[in-house]
Each structure stands twice: as structure tokens, then as C-alpha cells.
Amino acid sequence: MTTSPPVLSFEGVTKVFHQGDVEVRALRGLDLVVHPGELTAIVGPSGSGKSTALHLAGALDVPTTGTVRVDGVDLATLTARERAALRRDRIGFVFQSYNLVPVMSAHENAASVLALQGVPEAEQRTRVASLLEELGIGDLADRRPDQLSGGQQQRVAIARAVAARPAVVLGDEPTANVDSATAERLLDLIRSLNERHGTTFLLSTHDERVMKRVRRVVTLVDGKVASDETVGG
After folding, report:
1. Domains of the chain
2. CA dist 63 to 16, 22, 73, 95, 99, Å?
3. Which of 69, 104, 105, 114 measures 20 to 30 Å from 35, CA to CA?
4. Strand, helix or coil at 82?
């Protein structure tokens, strides 16, 4: 049984949005705990609350009611600036569109969070070079995003997400914009990082391939957990 404190927890979380006069209840009492080293997928039909849950997990917003804790910190107790610092220091993001800076090299993009944290340049170089090598793009460190394939850009994005050794890495449909072969390689990389470094991943997905490669699948229906299964991966 896992005894480590959770890196992420939702306790009775609701999230209500207003679209004009219409009230949309995206989450309806979500309870979820993610422990260090887990490789978890959140799945469910459109409108089930997956993206909203990931949005809250990323400290991009706070719940309407209930409590979201990231690395033990209650998001509702933080100012917007403090939430931004928490995102920078404790949460990694892998975006569908990669969100790489066009004028920066692969190495500079991967090191960008470390630079914001004030990590010394020598340590940035060492840590990022090792990561890019592990991800199979060490020889592409000086290339800009427009000189890289989609799969290579995705690897740079993963390097950026994990370089700062965050408590959790979040991915919203990480395989959505790549072909099947690239998706399989991406999932291999995520599994490798999880197994070799204990990196915690929480992935929102519709992709059956992702569901088959993770270790835990949490299904949301109507804004709360419908099932929570440990799978073989």
C-alpha cells in the first residue's frame, strides 16, 4: 500500500461555469488522489470533466467548492502569483500543440523552466543535455522548432516538462496531434521516464493506446469518478 503523501488530491471538488444565463457544472463532487510515481490516465466521454480536472490540477484555476491540493498545498489558499510560482516549480505540462518558443533552440526551450527558477547555467546545460540524450534527440539540441519534426518537438516539450523535476507532469490528450508510430514512441518515452525516474504522470485522453500503456485508468462521468482501475500497462 502506498504511504507517501499524495502529489495531487481532489476532495469533494465542484466547478461551475456560467455561460450567459446558463450554469454549467463541469465537476460534481470529484474525489481523486494521485501518489508519487503513478502513471494515470483520466478518461471519459466529452463533457465528463476531464479537461476541467486537469485545469485545476495544473493550478490554472481554483474549484468552486471542495479542495484541490498540489504537493500538499491547498490551491484556494494561494494568490494568483503564488499559483503561478507553484506551476513553475512543481507542475510540468505537455501540451497538444507543444508550445515551444520558435526563436529558441531545442536546448533553450527545454531549459526555459530551469532558467525561470534561477538554476545556474552550468546545471541547466548538464541536466538538459542528459535529458535530450535520453529522449533520443541529443544531436538536435541546437535546432529551432521549425527544424524539427512533430515527434521531435514533442520530445523537447517532454524534456521541458520534466527538467525541473516537478511533483507531477500533466498531459492533455498528448497523442492527439501525432501519427500512430509517433504516438507509440511518445508513450514509450513516458513509460521510460516513469519507470527510470519515478516521474508522476496524469494524462487526459480518449486514446485507447494511452489507456493500454498506463498503470491506472480513472473514468469520469458527469463530473465525478465512475470507476478507478489499476491496469497492467
Report:
1. 8-100+163-230 (3.40.50.300)
2. 8, 18, 14, 22, 26
3. 114
4. helix
The conformation of residue 8, written as its DSSP 8-state character, comes to E
CA 149 – CA 126 distance, rounded (Å): 24
Rounded Cα distance, 99 and 95, in Å: 7
Q: Which of 16, 12, 60 lies closest to 172 in space, CA to CA?
A: 60
Judged by average pLDDT, the poorest of 17-26, 53-62, 81-90, 132-141 is 17-26
pLDDT at 21 over 60: yes
Segment 202-231 mean pLDDT? 94
User: Which residue spans within the chain are E strands per DSSP?
Assistant: 8-19, 22-34, 39-43, 65-70, 73-74, 91-94, 168-172, 201-204, 216-221, 224-230
Number of C-beta neighbours around residue 80 at 10 A: 8
**Cα 94 from Cα 170, distance rounded (Å):** 6
The reported pLDDT for the residue numbered 233 is 57
